Protein backbone atom coordinates (compact mmCIF):
# COMPACT_ATOMS: atom_id res chain seq x y z
CA UNK A 1 0.00 0.00 0.00
CA UNK A 2 1.29 3.42 -0.98
CA UNK A 3 -0.38 6.39 0.72
CA UNK A 4 -0.09 9.79 -0.94
CA UNK A 5 -1.47 12.95 0.67
CA UNK A 6 -1.57 15.90 -1.69
CA UNK A 7 -3.20 19.31 -2.00
CA UNK A 8 -6.69 19.23 -3.42
CA UNK A 9 -7.29 21.08 -6.67
CA UNK A 10 -10.48 22.11 -8.48
CA UNK A 11 -10.12 18.86 -10.47
CA UNK A 12 -10.89 17.00 -7.20
CA UNK A 13 -14.24 18.75 -6.72
CA UNK A 14 -16.30 15.77 -7.94
CA UNK A 15 -14.55 13.29 -5.60
CA UNK A 16 -14.87 15.71 -2.69
CA UNK A 17 -18.57 16.18 -3.37
CA UNK A 18 -19.08 12.40 -3.44
CA UNK A 19 -17.33 12.21 -0.06
CA UNK A 20 -19.60 14.94 1.37
CA UNK A 21 -22.66 13.05 0.11
CA UNK A 22 -21.34 9.83 1.67
CA UNK A 23 -20.89 11.62 5.02
CA UNK A 24 -24.44 12.91 4.76
CA UNK A 25 -25.76 9.41 4.11
CA UNK A 26 -23.94 7.98 7.15
CA UNK A 27 -25.21 10.80 9.37
CA UNK A 28 -28.74 10.68 7.94
CA UNK A 29 -28.51 14.29 6.76
CA UNK A 30 -27.93 13.86 3.02
CA UNK A 31 -31.10 15.79 2.19
CA UNK A 32 -29.55 18.91 3.77
CA UNK A 33 -26.63 18.94 1.32
CA UNK A 34 -27.08 21.57 -1.38
CA UNK A 35 -23.44 21.98 -2.42
CA UNK A 36 -22.22 20.93 -5.87
CA UNK A 37 -18.86 20.05 -7.35
CA UNK A 38 -19.02 23.33 -9.29
CA UNK A 39 -19.35 25.29 -6.04
CA UNK A 40 -16.34 23.48 -4.56
CA UNK A 41 -14.23 24.18 -7.64
CA UNK A 42 -15.29 27.83 -7.79
CA UNK A 43 -15.25 28.79 -4.09
CA UNK A 44 -12.36 26.81 -2.69
CA UNK A 45 -9.58 24.33 -3.13
CA UNK A 46 -6.84 26.94 -3.49
CA UNK A 47 -4.90 29.20 -1.12
CA UNK A 48 -6.71 32.47 -0.53
CA UNK A 49 -10.09 30.96 -1.40
CA UNK A 50 -12.91 30.03 1.01
CA UNK A 51 -11.23 26.74 1.93
CA UNK A 52 -8.39 24.41 1.05
CA UNK A 53 -8.19 20.66 1.01
CA UNK A 54 -6.03 17.60 1.11
CA UNK A 55 -6.65 14.38 -0.79
CA UNK A 56 -5.48 10.98 0.42
CA UNK A 57 -4.87 8.36 -2.24
CA UNK A 58 -3.95 4.72 -1.73
CA UNK A 59 -2.21 3.25 -4.74
CA UNK A 60 -3.65 6.06 -6.85
CA UNK A 61 -7.26 5.60 -5.66
CA UNK A 62 -9.19 8.25 -3.70
CA UNK A 63 -9.19 7.13 -0.05
CA UNK A 64 -10.17 10.29 1.82
CA UNK A 65 -10.06 14.04 2.12
CA UNK A 66 -9.86 16.88 4.59
CA UNK A 67 -11.22 20.39 3.98
CA UNK A 68 -9.91 23.22 6.15
CA UNK A 69 -9.79 27.00 6.44
CA UNK A 70 -8.02 29.66 8.48
CA UNK A 71 -9.55 30.99 11.70
CA UNK A 72 -8.46 33.51 14.30
CA UNK A 73 -8.85 33.33 18.08
CA UNK A 74 -9.43 36.75 19.59
CA UNK A 75 -8.84 35.24 23.04
CA UNK A 76 -5.48 33.77 22.10
CA UNK A 77 -4.64 36.58 19.72
CA UNK A 78 -3.41 33.95 17.27
CA UNK A 79 -4.44 32.41 13.98
CA UNK A 80 -5.56 28.81 13.83
CA UNK A 81 -6.90 26.26 11.41
CA UNK A 82 -10.45 24.94 11.30
CA UNK A 83 -11.18 21.48 9.92
CA UNK A 84 -14.53 21.65 8.17
CA UNK A 85 -14.75 18.09 6.88
CA UNK A 86 -12.74 14.90 7.28
CA UNK A 87 -13.69 11.79 5.35
CA UNK A 88 -12.04 8.40 4.91
CA UNK A 89 -13.64 5.86 2.60
CA UNK A 90 -14.90 2.77 4.46
CA UNK A 91 -12.45 0.56 2.52
CA UNK A 92 -9.50 2.45 3.99
CA UNK A 93 -10.57 2.99 7.59
CA UNK A 94 -8.26 1.65 10.27
CA UNK A 95 -5.18 2.57 8.22
CA UNK A 96 -4.55 5.88 10.06
CA UNK A 97 -5.41 7.92 6.98
CA UNK A 98 -7.68 10.26 8.96
CA UNK A 99 -4.92 10.84 11.48
CA UNK A 100 -2.41 11.47 8.69
CA UNK A 101 -4.75 14.06 7.14
CA UNK A 102 -5.33 15.87 10.45
CA UNK A 103 -1.62 15.87 11.25
CA UNK A 104 -0.82 17.31 7.81
CA UNK A 105 -3.40 20.09 8.29
CA UNK A 106 -1.86 20.86 11.69
CA UNK A 107 1.60 21.10 10.12
CA UNK A 108 0.31 23.37 7.35
CA UNK A 109 -1.37 25.56 9.95
CA UNK A 110 1.73 25.72 12.14
CA UNK A 111 3.87 26.69 9.13
CA UNK A 112 1.44 29.57 8.55
CA UNK A 113 1.61 30.75 12.17
CA UNK A 114 -1.38 28.86 13.58
CA UNK A 115 -1.38 28.03 17.26
CA UNK A 116 -4.43 25.76 17.34
CA UNK A 117 -6.76 23.48 15.40
CA UNK A 118 -10.52 23.45 15.85
CA UNK A 119 -13.33 21.36 14.46
CA UNK A 120 -16.89 20.35 15.20
CA UNK A 121 -18.16 16.79 15.45
CA UNK A 122 -21.77 15.79 14.93
CA UNK A 123 -23.38 15.06 18.29
CA UNK A 124 -24.37 11.50 17.33
CA UNK A 125 -21.08 10.61 15.65
CA UNK A 126 -19.51 8.79 18.58
CA UNK A 127 -16.98 6.99 16.39
CA UNK A 128 -15.56 10.32 15.19
CA UNK A 129 -15.59 11.69 18.73
CA UNK A 130 -13.52 8.73 19.94
CA UNK A 131 -11.13 9.11 16.99
CA UNK A 132 -10.48 12.81 17.69
CA UNK A 133 -10.00 12.20 21.41
CA UNK A 134 -7.53 9.41 20.64
CA UNK A 135 -5.34 11.68 18.52
CA UNK A 136 -5.47 14.57 21.01
CA UNK A 137 -8.21 16.79 19.56
CA UNK A 138 -10.23 17.22 22.75
CA UNK A 139 -13.82 18.25 23.26
CA UNK A 140 -14.19 21.33 25.43
CA UNK A 141 -17.27 21.20 27.63
CA UNK A 142 -17.58 24.99 27.76
CA UNK A 143 -17.89 25.41 23.97
CA UNK A 144 -21.15 25.14 22.08
CA UNK A 145 -21.58 25.90 18.41
CA UNK A 146 -24.51 28.13 17.57
CA UNK A 147 -25.55 28.72 13.99
CA UNK A 148 -28.11 30.48 11.81
CA UNK A 149 -28.88 28.75 8.50
CA UNK A 150 -31.45 29.25 5.78
CA UNK A 151 -34.45 31.34 6.78
CA UNK A 152 -33.00 32.06 10.22
CA UNK A 153 -29.92 33.56 8.58
CA UNK A 154 -32.03 35.54 6.13
CA UNK A 155 -34.09 37.02 8.98
CA UNK A 156 -30.97 37.79 10.98
CA UNK A 157 -29.36 39.56 8.05
CA UNK A 158 -32.48 41.58 7.12
CA UNK A 159 -34.00 42.64 10.40
CA UNK A 160 -32.87 45.95 11.90
CA UNK A 161 -33.41 46.35 15.62
CA UNK A 162 -32.74 50.09 15.77
Automatic annotation (TrEMBL):
It comes from Mesorhizobium australicum. SUPFAM superfamilies: Acyl-CoA N-acyltransferases (Nat). Keywords: Acyltransferase, Transferase. Gene3D superfamilies: 3.40.630.30. Belongs to the acetyltransferase family. One of its GO terms (molecular function) is N-acetyltransferase activity. Residues 3-156 form the N-acetyltransferase domain. PROSITE patterns: GNAT (PS51186). This is Acetyltransferase (GNAT) family protein. Pfam families: Acetyltransf_1.
Amino acid sequence: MTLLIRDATPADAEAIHRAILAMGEVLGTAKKITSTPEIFAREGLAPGRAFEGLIAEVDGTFAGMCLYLPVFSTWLGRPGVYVQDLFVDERYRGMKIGEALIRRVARIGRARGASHLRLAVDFDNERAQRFYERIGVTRYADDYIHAAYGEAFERLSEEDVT
